[in-house]
Amino acid sequence: MTAIQAVYIRGHEERPDPKPHVVYRIEIQAHVRSWQMWRRYSEFVELHTELTKSTGSSPPAPLPPKNSLAILRGPFRDSSNMTEERRAGLETYLRAIISAKDDKWRECYAFRDFLGVPVGRVGTMAEGSTSSKQFSSSSWLDEHLELQAKIRDIRADINKRDALSDRGDVSASHTANVQAKKKLAETLSRVRTLTQGLQELGMAAMAQGELQRRTDMVARLQDDCEKLGKMVTVTRQASRPTAAPGPSSRGFTNVTITPESDRATLLSLSKPVTRVFGAKKPQETEMTRPLDDQGLVQLQNTQMEQQDGQLATLTHILQRQRHLGEAIGAELAVHNELLDELNNDVDRVGSKLSGAKKQLNRLG
After folding, report:
1. What Å distances lie between residue 214 and 56, 142, 195, CA to CA?
2. Please, which residues have CB within 8 angstroms of residue 122's CB and are 6 or more apart in sequence?
3. How far apart are CA 278 and CA 266, in angstroms?
4. Which one, of 92, 70, 93, 89, lies nearest residue 14 by Cα?
5. Which of 2, 3, 330, 362 is most buried, most CB within 10 Å of its CB?
6. How many CB atoms neighbour CB 79 within 10 A?
7. Whether 36 contacts 25, CB under 8 Å
8. What is the distance between the alpha carbons of residues 33 and 31, in angstroms, rounded to a whole number?
9. Residue 190: is it exposed, middle or buried by C-beta count within 10 angstroms (0-12/13-18/19+)?
10. What secondary structure letter does DSSP report for 129?
């Protein structure tokens, strides 16, 4: 489901239809957007009953008790304190479900539907299923953020594997590598699903600039997965059984004995050792002709230092571009939230206009 960061109940409203009742304004904040829902107390009771029935246990916090508010039944009745206490209790109830270690209540469909989680990543795919999910624009971004976090976890597992391997703990290193492979396989499947979802969003009249930006985001995920795949398979090649150490290698461990043919090829024992200036036929230049071996080494070191300086400059430029991209992404996220708030305000004004129209119709 969409990763929910916080839930608040910051207000309530008295409505006359179909009979006088109070509804509470629930504000939900996710990674890249926020929205609000209006729910009355009876809907909270239905949610509590459904969660208890679906999961087999009650949510971590109880509902505030049901009192006879009798709102608007008498002109002199003040129920503001009672309504405020109920609002605080309902907010505590929702926050307890969001922050609970056990996610069985959060993953329940009734809870997602109650909070109005955007359609897209509702539910999980069955094992072996090839059907694709439907994404909304915001849920697609949520999925992308989760995949980035998944890739960071895989890198952490690979680093853990290497550290365990350096300590000689082969069993634990193999376990960490297996975990990294499983996570990588799941991530690859989700990246393919994300790509299909982006194609569907592109067909749904998404702006060309935004479509290109998200295409680049998917391409970066695919590149990261490809690099991680190579890193995961390295241990398989490095962990191949080596020849048993002979008497001369006693006291050494984890030493791979290289075949003589490979050593001959590596050391080029069949060819005389000569000065080589690259893949082409060696050629002296005006710069190298007056230099001896030590001078050639010094020249090579100088050129390598110049290349390192150029690479450092390029790295600085790329980091600046990255910071600009992150700033643009943050600005877009703020604009999306502002647009969502505007959409909510339009809906609220529309609802009030509809109520006013009904009252005018009754007066007419």
Report:
1. 41, 12, 9
2. 1, 109, 112
3. 16
4. 70
5. 2
6. 18
7. yes
8. 6
9. buried
10. -
How long is the chain? 364
End-to-end CA distance of the chain: 47
Choose among 184, 182, 202: nearest CA to 192.
184
Q: Are 133 and 1 in contact (CB under 8 A)?
A: no
Answering whether pTM is above 0.85, one says no
User: According to the per-residue pLDDT averaged within each range, which of 106-120, 204-218, 337-351 is highest?
Assistant: 337-351
Residue 115: count other Cβ atoms within 10 Å of its Cβ. 23
Cα-to-chain-centroid distance, residue 238:
31
Structure tokens at 8: 């608040």
Residue 89 to residue 151: CA distance in whole angstroms: 39
Three-class secondary structure of residue 127 per DSSP:
coil
CA distances from 3 to 33, 112, 143, 197 (A): 10, 11, 9, 18
List pLDDT tens digits, range 289-317: 777 777 778 888 888 988 988 998 899 89
Calculate the dihedral angle through the C-alpha atoms of 181, 31, 88, 38, rounding to the nearest 10 degrees. Answer: -110
Give the DSSP H or E segment for 301: helix 293-363
